[in-house]
Design brief:
With 120 residues, this protein is α+β, with helices and mostly antiparallel strands. It is 50% helix and 12% strand. The chain is built from 4 helices and 4 strands. Strands 1-2-4-3 form a 4-stranded antiparallel β-sheet. Helix 2 runs parallel beside helix 4 and helix 3 packs antiparallel against helix 4. The mean pLDDT is 90.
Length: 120
């Protein structure tokens, strides 16, 4: 309830939500997942080689995953480096939540690997 806008219906947003769902259906959920896998696989392999920790691929989605490192990463240094490179992720405690989607490409993931490699 904390985030409630005081009403249950927001008729202005309904056409936008419908259009979004129609677009996702045109693209195909499986196609979106495959695209995200295709742009993340190489980056994830390189992160694992650099000592980062990720859930096994059979337990995570390609469009949503967390990254940790066994060594402590300075959160301020990490946030500054990410902001400077205009990389938007969510830092959750000692994990970095990454949510690539159709607007991302492999170069975006390469930039993320470069930044993460530089802060450990």
């Amino acid at each position: 309830l904390r985030y409630s806008v005081g009403e249950q219906s927001n008729f202005i947003l309904a056409p936008m939500a419908l259009t979004s769902i129609e677009q996702i259906n045109r693209w195909g959920v499986e196609n979106i997942q495959e695209y995200c896998r295709s742009i993340t696989d190489s980056a994830i392999t390189r992160l694992l080689e650099k000592g980062f920790l990720l859930e096994e691929s059979s337990y995570r989605a390609s469009h949503f995953f967390g990254i940790r490192h066994s060594r402590q990463i300075d959160p301020k240094k990490l946030k500054d480096a990410l902001n400077k490179s205009r990389i938007h992720v969510s830092i959750r405690g000692d994990a970095i939540r990454v949510s690539p989607h159709v607007y991302n490409d492999a170069q975006d993931l390469n930039r993320l690997v470069k930044i993460l490699s530089g802060v450990i």
